[in-house]
UniProtKB/TrEMBL annotation:
Gene3D superfamilies: Periplasmic binding protein-like II. The keyword Signal applies. Its main location: periplasm. It comes from the Bacteria. This is ABC transporter substrate-binding protein. It is found in: Periplasm. PANTHER family: ABC TRANSPORTER SUBSTRATE-BINDING PROTEIN (PTHR43649:SF30), ARABINOSE-BINDING PROTEIN-RELATED (PTHR43649). Residues 407-430 are annotated as: Disordered. It comes from Herbaspirillum robiniae. SUPFAM superfamilies: Periplasmic binding protein-like II. InterPro entries: Bact_solute-bd_prot1 (IPR050490), SBP (IPR006059). Belongs to the bacterial solute-binding protein 1 family. Residues 413-430 have a biased composition (Basic and acidic residues). Keywords: Signal.
Length: 430
């Protein structure tokens, strides 16, 4: 009898071991599309996160695919989805929310994270970031690399111009006044140093939204079915932007490239620049001069839209893959890891518990500028996001560029953008 029991126990142990080995030999495989779209080497950090996750979860294999810019990433993700081979998980713009829902490309996070603990975890993200992650009573995305726009300024150039290097302009009038003192021209009128550069390509709508928000004007409704591009507050904000080149002559006319703006700042071709807080680590690493980071100067008060990317889990993937994707999302959002990501990239850690970690507290003592974006969240608004968002955003971007290049007045440009937006969104408002 004893021999039979031992034999049975040995068989069970062998069976369990075989099962475990078979399980480890056949892990759940998930693909993860990640956009490389900001300054600085972030792929190494992502690779490290994936390696740590796989070590902690040997039953899951993650294939990271670096998909290019945000725009390229959503095209690749939707193309793969329509062909029946979607990524399991992707980091895409928070503003892609309605497009992904309309394509039935993603599953709601609530359908995967339904326990009381899951709900408490979702509630732990900053409300400002969740505005671009939830709609219709459901959570569709989880904030990951989120940001706001901030102003970087060269303290040496401020000092040379007789400005206080420890006090950034807080209003548009103060920024214009400082920019005039910071713009350098030779005897022929050629500019070697611009007072300020606000990029207008790629994310022109984002910069404009900050100006409108500081003028108490919101550009869209929360359902993503209506826009308010041509409100008086919007027109006034765009006029301010145009005036920087035509009236104040402190910024170059025409297009200012999103991608080269940080480089122009680092090369001291611009004394002040507006760009994402996601460029903080890049600028810290490469600046050869002391610089400051400040909230954006506003018309009535500070203001900035949130920005950046969310995690999304795709449809047409297996329940096992979706569960594994949620596990990876929760892993990435753990306080110490979210703090590490923020420190490595400059993005705003999207949860308070990340800011409460010893690592983040130490970092803020060394780099207090990293806290500017979080402080600015008090004045934050949801980034422009609507149904058929890419077409609506393009209509606005094209008309902003027309105003900045002088081919349309701000009022005419925004009326045209509104007409085109109304046409695109007509069917969604019914």
């Amino acid at each position: 009898m004893r021999r039979a029991i031992l034999k049975s126990a040995a068989a069970l142990a062998m069976s369990a071991a075989f099962g475990a080995n078979a399980f480890a030999a056949n892990p759940v495989e998930i693909s993860f599309y990640y956009p490389v779209a900001v300054g600085g080497a972030v792929t190494k950090t992502i690779d490290g996160m994936v390696a740590d996750f796989e070590k902690a979860n040997p039953d899951i294999k993650v294939k990271a695919v670096y998909a290019g810019t945000y725009q390229e990433s959503i095209v690749k993700a939707l193309t793969a989805f329509k062909s029946g081979t979607p990524p399991t998980l992707a980091v895409l713009l928070s503003t892609d929310l309605f497009t992904l829902i309309d394509e039935n490309a993603i599953v709601s996070i609530d359908s995967l994270a339904s326990s009381a603990d899951d709900k408490k975890w979702i509630d732990g993200f900053y409300k400002g970031f969740m505005e671009n992650s939830q709609t219709g009573g459901k959570t569709w995305g989880i904030p990951f690399q989120r940001s706001t726009i901030v102003m970087y300024y060269n303290k040496n150039l401020f000092k040379e111009a007789g400005l206080n290097p420890d006090k950034a302009p807080a209003s548009w009038a103060e920024m214009v006044d400082a920019a005039k003192k910071l713009t350098k021209r030779d005897a022929s009128g050629n500019v070697s140093q611009w007072g300020v550069k606000i990029p207008s390509t790629g994310f022109g709508y984002w910069m404009f939204q900050a100006m409108a928000a500081s003028n108490d004007t919101i550009l869209m409704n929360s359902a993503g079915t209506k826009t308010y591009f041509d409100k008086p507050g919007s027109v006034q904000a765009l006029q301010h932007w145009v005036d920087l080149t035509t009236k104040d002559k402190v910024m170059p006319a025409g297009s200012i490239e999103w991608g080269t703006t940080p480089k122009d700042f680092l090369e001291q071709k611009a004394a002040m620049v507006w760009t994402t807080t996601g460029n903080l680590t890049n600028i810290r690493t490469n600046a050869t001069f002391p610089f400051g980071v400040a909230m954006l100067p506003g018309i009535k008060h500070p203001g900035s839209p949130t920005g950046g990317g969310n995690f999304y889990v795709f449809n047409k993937t297996s329940p096992e893959q979706q569960a594994a994707a949620l596990k990876f999302i929760r892993f990435a959002a753990e306080p110490a890891r979210a703090a590490q990501w923020s420190i490595a990239t400059g993005y705003v850690a999207p949860r308070q518990d990340a800011w409460d970690t010893p690592e983040m507290k130490k970092y803020l003592q060394e780099v207090p500028a990293a806290d500017v974006a979080r402080e600015q969240m008090k004045y934050g608004v949801a980034e422009l996001s609507t149904h058929d968002n890419q077409r609506v955003t393009k209509a606005l971007n094209d008309n902003l560029q027309a105003a900045l290049s002088g081919t349309k007045t701000p009022e005419a440009a925004l009326k045209e953008a509104q007409r085109e937006s109304d046409r695109i969104l007509r069917s969604y408002g019914r």
